[in-house]
């Protein structure tokens, strides 16, 4: 079932979209509008810019596998995948643009996150 989900979604991800089922309807969401994915047990909260949140019955691990080739998405801790296009790195702190709270970065992923942010920043200059 997981492999089917990833296989079916890849056609959308290649076009920078993702298909999410919510309340019986399937909605195509532009990947650039996604701020972060946040784990909530066996569900994933998909936070969009503008403050909207969609709850998916898929796990964070599935979204991580699905977005593996998308350089703007990175898993920073056990419960979050962030879109680097919506983050600000200032004074060694990672924040979502327009939000006041910091993003926790796990110790294990700290160095990889720092390198990825530096490389991502260079690519987008």
Keywords:
OB fold (Dihydrolipoamide Acetyltransferase, E2P); two-stranded antiparallel ribbon; 125 residues
Low-confidence stretches: none
Q: How many domains?
A: 1
Output mean pLDDT.
Answer: 82
Order of helices and strands: HEEEEEHEEEEH
How much helix, percentage-wise, in residues?
25-40%
Q: Do you know the CATH architecture? A: Beta Barrel
User: What's the count of strands?
Assistant: 9
CATH superfamily: LytTr DNA-binding domain
The N- to C-terminal Cα distance equals: 40 Å
Strand-pairing-aware structural class: alpha+beta
Biggest sheet, spatial arrangement of strands: 5-4-3-7-6
The protein's oligomeric status is single chain
- Report Rg: 14 Å
- CATH topology heading: OB fold (Dihydrolipoamide Acetyltransferase, E2P)
- Give the overall shape, derived from the CA principal axes: globular
What's the number of helices?
Answer: 3
CATH secondary-structure class: Mainly Beta
Largest sheet composition: 5 strands, antiparallel
Beta-strand share of residues = 35-45%
GO molecular function: DNA binding
Domain HTH LytTR-type: 18-86
Protein name: LytTR family transcriptional regulator
Organism: Lacihabitans soyangensis
